[in-house]
Amino acid sequence: MIKKIKFIALSVMIAVTAITGAGVYKQAANAAGTADTLSLYDAVKNTAENNGALITGETFDYTVGVSEHTVTNNVVSNDFVFKSFDSFDKELPKLKFTDWKQTETAALSGNPYGPQINVNSAYSDSNGIIRVNRAESVSVKLVFKKNAKLSVTHDEITGIIDTDKDIRIRIYTETDGKQTLVTQNPLYSGSSAREANSLGAEINVKSGTTVYYEYGAVGGWEKTLKAKTLGSGMFVNFTADTESYDNSFGLTLNGMAEATATNGFNSVEYNETVDFSVKHGKLGAEVPFDVTGTNLMQTTERNDGGTYASVYFKYVDTLMRTNGEKDVIVVELTFKKNVKITVGSAAINSPTNGTAYYKYYVKRVSGGENFYKNLETFKITNTAAEENAIGFTASVTAGDSFVAVIYGSNCTTNIFLQPDFEINEKGYNESETFDFTETIEFAGYVKEQKTETKRKYDELFSDTYETAYLEKLYNDFITETDKAETKEEVKAAADKFNALIDDVETKTQVTAAIDTAKTRVNDYVSALDKNKYSEEVYNEILSIKEKGLSEIEGVKTSTAAKTKADEIIGEINLLPVLEVNNTPLIITLIVIAVILAAAAATTVVILKGRKKTK
Fold it and tell me: Tens digit of pLDDT for each residue in 371-386?
């Protein structure tokens, strides 16, 4: 079951259109009018005049307040509670707290005055203040009543200094109580200036969604943003265009990885269009990561080198590493609507220190089984990669998934080039989708053949002594079936198996052959004339018989039973029979008996003759 979460720390790839100069937009919002175009100045002024209450607009309602974050062990939570100021200066205008009490004594220092925002149209040195601390940020809250494209724009910002590095400009959305971080940009990023609109965005916002534009901080010091230092570019303009709305949006792989880690490595229910997951393993058998660190997630299991994690994913300053093709990164976007998905990537001088592979699939789940179609494969080497070097476009049907598999050629390959994903419902084209009908039908046929062959195999395996031979036949069948691309090839493999198992004897057949062999030996010995043998030889015959019958009992094939019977009978035939001068004993005895009888008769006649002579 996919775990629902209140907040997802997700950096979203937003299509930002270059809109030069905030002056293009009129600053004409007021409490009673529409809010299609709104400047920060008007937002603060109208909030002060309405004592912090929402100001009604045609496309969105709005107010300016404080987004209060929880700070635990110096870490600022991404979720927050929005609250109103209680002091409203309608002249400057200015918003602040009358009796502010710091909530983080150990975290704040200097003279903590509490959060406030003080602006005027001239952005003078003495005004134009936005003061925040890491627990309390100043936010413009926009509650949308219509679908619209929101453009957040600003002038160029100059005079940014290194100590502003803790300041963060964030955009959140909130739907059904779930807050999502859309963008988070540090004010200072190694340069004293920011281009116009670099901290803004264009976002398609659905009716019922709340957008927060937040000035925040992550450091422990109270932070003050002033016009003197930062220029008028800190004071943004909001424009909502209902005509330009479309529900396309983008996802960065880094943001998806961060959201996955924040969600306990589980799949993320992102919005009404897509859920996603970032896992590792083998395609179709991927599993969640199990170790997290500072801006990264990895595995407990080690790679083939034995030193580093099998899969490592640092989602700040992107670095991906896999255990070659054995353990890969699997990114899955599961769609609830028909969409067009466009994969893009930035130009990068050093995309990898070896060779990286990017394989894109469309996946369908049917009958509890996963079916994949490989759409494209990219091979990226360590030479410079142009923009969209791994770019690809596909239409994906609701219920199906787009899957990206990323891996290096070995466990030492560092991968820096990552895909980003733009999702657009309007661009969906059914003719560009992959039809899984034949794939699923073929898989069903394969499953039937495998099931029936397995049934025959199990039945015969339990009733034969030729298990090794039978196991080889079955494994050969599975190998040939897995390689098969047509029903004919699958059937040929099944027919081959069925033909060969006809030669496999069952235990019943072997038992019958054993009984026949034993009967043959017993009958042969019974037919022998005991008188032809000496007592010693005959006892040896009986011994050979008993030993042979025992050996016949232990054979595993009919052939072995017959052969053993032949051997026993042959061994008995080699034993000597009784003989006299090469004459069989019985004949000798008869001759002797005749001679003795004749001799006895002669002796009687002679004796009688002698008596008469006397």
Answer: 999 999 999 999 999 9
Neighbours of 136 (CB within 10 A): 25
For the chain, the straight-line distance linking the first and the last C-alpha, in angstroms and rounded, comes to: 135
Residue 143: beta bridge partners?
61, 210
Angle between helices 558-573 and 535-553 (to 10 degrees): 170
Picking from 561, 563, 573, 564, the residue whose alpha carbon sits closest to that of residue 528 is: 573
Pairing of strands 157-158, 249-252: unpaired
Instruction: Supply φ then ψ for residue 569, to 5 degrees.
Output: -65, -40
**Helix, strand or coil for residue 60?**
strand
What is the percentage of the chain residues whose pLDDT exceeds 70?
85
If phi > 0 it is left, if psi is from -120 to 50 it is alpha, else beta; for residue 326 that is alpha
Nearest to 45 by CA among 105, 102, 89: 89
DSSP assigned state of 284: T
Tokens encoding 201: 């965005």
Quote the tokens at residue 144.
């949308």
List all residues 6 or more positions away from 516 whose beta carbon is below 8 Å from its beta carbon: 561, 562
Report how far residue 69's alpha carbon sits from residue 267's, in angstroms, rounded to the nearest whole number: 25
Angle in degrees, 0-180, between the axes of helices 437-461 and 487-501, rounded to the nearest 10: 10
Partners of residue 277 on adjacent β-strands: 332
Compute, in degrees rounded to 10, the torsion defined by CA atoms 476, 479, 480, 483.
-170
How far apart CA 393 and CA 458 sit, in angstroms, is 47
Is the per-residue pLDDT at 131 higher than 50?
yes
